[in-house]
Amino acid sequence: MALPDLSLSRSRLDKVSQDRQAEGLLARTLQDPTTSLLLLRDGRCPVHPDGPGRGLRTLRGAEAAAVVAALGGAERLAAGGEDPATEVVAVHLGLLPADDERAPGAVVGLLLPAEGAGPAVEAVAAGPAAGTADPVVEAALAEPAADLRALGTLLPATDAGALTEAVALHHWHRSHPRCPRCGSATRPAAAGHERVCLTDGSTQHPRHDPAVIMTVTDPAGRLLLGHQGRWPAGRFSAFAGFVEPGESLEGAVARELLEEAGVRVREVAYLGSQPWPFPASLMLAFHAETDDTTAVADGDEITEVRWFDRPGLVAAVATGEVTVPPAVSVARRLIEDWLGEPLEQQADWR
Ligand SMILES: [Zn+2]
Fold first, then answer.
1. What is the whole-number distance in angstroms between the Cα of residue 171 and the centre of ligand 1?
2. CA–CA distance from 137 to each of 65, 128, 141, 211, 322 (Å)?
3. Whole-Å CA distances, 101 to 36, 54, 158, 246
4. Is 312 helix (H, G, I), strand (E, B) or coil?
């Protein structure tokens, strides 16, 4: 694997997917004092008070019990509601690895509705006066929390993996409340990893969309990068696009490079993958080679293409003339893989 340890591909939880259908798994786990609760709201999760390098601020023991009680109890949370936009979805994310200081125990994600959307969440956020046992709970929900794009490279592997999974499932639940067959309401099932239609009983599984992302080099080893018209000046990245129905990954790489940059691909090599749950992509990384030395931007999505040699890219990044993608992205890792060394530039692309 040419791109090891991609930031969001480091999950270390034992997902125990074989146990998810077991009766009462989620309710039992929510009542288990060894369970760590990961609270997620608006894509953001509280971080450890000593910083994200120490991990997420997950809740355990009395803190966790207070949150579960405030949200209606373990049974109600495990059953879930019919509208993930206004109700809490609980998901069993997996078991902690043995070398984690919180182990043994499970991690359960509580996917909270957007601020103001749910009375139970308001009760927790309102703190002791509203019946919450521990003001720390209030603090946990109220304190500034960073999102996965900002934290992904900083979090320890276990927490990065847990948060990636929670964010992905949160987006899916929120965006798929109804049955695609009959339009009826659905409820969470399989410990939060499925939804089941209340009318026809059909099971819906989380969706994600494969996308290819690739570097391409010419016979001289120069790297071609593209600039999108909607980006600030100087921002350059690898080419990328969704895989179309009926298309192979290699076919998608070749099509996207021809479409966006006008180059025909000779060789395509797979380099690794990373979930990118914003909202539902799975990024599949490739390196391609082309014999074409002239590239032409499509003028639509891509408005500028530019060849870089290694000293040229290093210099352009050093002066700030060129901005490269953030460290959490596959694009950044692809560019650094070609360069042969990491780039120092910090970037927050939004
Ligand atoms: Zn249905």
1. 20
2. 10, 9, 6, 38, 43
3. 12, 11, 11, 46
4. helix
Classify residue 123 as exposed, middle or buried by CB count within 10 Å of its CB (0-12, 13-18, 19+): middle
* Residue that wins the pLDDT comparison between 136 and 95: 95
Domains of the chain: 7-204 (no CATH), 209-339 (3.90.79.10)
Rg (CA), the chain: 22
CA of 196 to the centre of ligand 1 (A): 8
45-58 pLDDT, tens digit per residue, is: 888 888 889 999 99
Ligand 1 center from residue 170 Cα (angstroms): 21
How many whole angstroms from 204 Cα to the centroid of ligand 1?
9
**Those residues with Cβ within 8 angstroms of residue 335's Cβ, 6 or more apart along the chain or in another chain:** 215, 223, 225, 237, 238, 313, 324, 325, 343
For residue 181, the CA-to-ligand 1 centroid distance in Å is 5
Q: 197 CA distance to ligand 1 centroid (A)?
A: 5
What's the CA gap between 275 and 195, in Å, rounded?
21
- Whether the pLDDT of residue 127 is over 80: the answer is no
Task: Average the pLDDT over each of 52-61, 165-174, 315-324 and give the range with the smallest value.
Answer: 52-61
pLDDT tens digits along 19-28:
999 999 999 9
- Would you state the structure tokens that stand for residue 230, as one six-digit string? 């909607």
Q: pTM of the predicted model, to two decimals?
A: 0.92
User: How many angstroms separate the alpha carbon of residue 113 from the centre of ligand 1?
Assistant: 23
Segment among 138-147, 217-226, 301-310 with least mean pLDDT = 138-147
Distance 69 CA to ligand 1 centre (A): 32
Confidence (pLDDT) at 139: 55
Helix (H) or strand (E) holding 134: none
CA of 106 to the centre of ligand 1 (A): 32
Cα(88) to centroid(ligand 1), Å: 21
